[in-house]
Design a protein that fits this description.
Layout lengths: L12 H4 L27 H15 L1 H60 L7 E6 L8 E6 H41 L18 H75 L1
Helix pairs in contact: 4-5
Length: about 280
């Protein structure tokens, strides 16, 4: 039988010394052996105490409770020793980690100070190392130039290149307008998708040039349409004249053929008459 425990895991003393339930074996009557030794008469108090201690030593429940209490004591001592060792080990690891962290913080602070020191200087006073390549009249090597001078040279070069680029872009826009003007003159405004440029973002003067180009192209396109209409009328007249000429030629050919047949018939008759006269003579 296991001793009862509460929710905190504490063993109650009442459960240790509680009397177990009797079984069918316990209820059987056990006849003690007969003893023929003579009895000594003892005082009543001494006799009662000796009987109590004898029963306690012979009771198995009391010995089991004592063993359980000893086991609990040993478990408590073992748990205490283990907890103390774990606590010491944890304290040792924590102290070592704190020391390592302090060293790491010092190292990081030293690195940050090394990085911060050159950053506090003005950036224009920094020296750059340029590598010179061997060329015409130049020897390969290295030279140190202040960053301020490099920045000023870069800005000057950037301004020059930007001006050249703007000039090239303006020339390219003029070329685009000229190409568009030629395309409109050739194909007409209605057949090109150039109307979108009228509402686009153009520089001052470009929109006026575009409208003038459209006016010139429109005039040329209308003139081309008139010429095309005149050419079509001329072609129609020429086709009509060709029809008349063809009809006249057919009539003339018919008349020639009829006259040829008639003349041929007449000639054949004359030849026949002449042959008859010749045979008669």
């Amino acid at each position: 039988m296991q001793p009862a425990t509460d929710k905190h895991g504490t063993v109650s003393a009442k459960s240790l010394f509680s009397r177990p339930a009797r079984t069918s074996v316990d209820r059987q009557s056990i006849v003690p052996p007969r003893v023929t030794k003579p009895r000594r008469s003892l005082p009543s108090e001494q006799r009662d105490s000796s009987q109590f201690y004898g029963k306690r030593q012979n009771d198995p429940r009391v010995s089991l409770a004592d063993k359980f209490i000893e086991t609990l004591d040993r478990y408590g001592e073992t748990l205490h020793d283990r907890s103390a060792n774990d606590l010491e080990e944890t304290e040792r690891k924590l102290s070592s980690n704190l020391e390592e962290l302090a060293l790491d913080v010092e190292a990081h602070c030293h690195k940050l100070s090394e990085i911060e020191e050159p950053l506090q200087k003005p950036i224009t006073t920094e020296a750059l190392t340029n590598v010179r390549s061997a060329g015409k009249g130049a020897v390969a090597g290295t030279e140190e130039v202040l960053l301020k001078e490099s920045i000023s040279e870069f800005r000057k070069l950037n301004e020059e290149k930007g001006q050249i680029l703007r000039q090239l872009w303006e020339e390219w826009e003029d070329v685009q307008l000229q190409i568009m003007s030629l395309a409109v003159e050739l194909y007409g405004k209605d057949s090109l998708h150039v109307v979108q440029m009228e509402t686009g973002t153009l520089k001052p003067g470009q929109l006026e040039r575009l409208h003038d180009m459209f006016k010139v192209a429109k005039t040329g396109y209308h003139e081309m349409r008139r010429n095309h209409a005149e050419l079509q009328r001329s072609l129609d007249g020429f086709e009509e004249d060709l029809g008349q000429i063809s009809n006249k030629a057919k009539n003339v050919a018919k008349e020639i053929h009829e006259s040829y047949v008639q003349k041929k018939t007449e000639n054949m008759k004359q030849i026949t008459n002449l042959l008859q006269q010749f045979t008669e003579d």
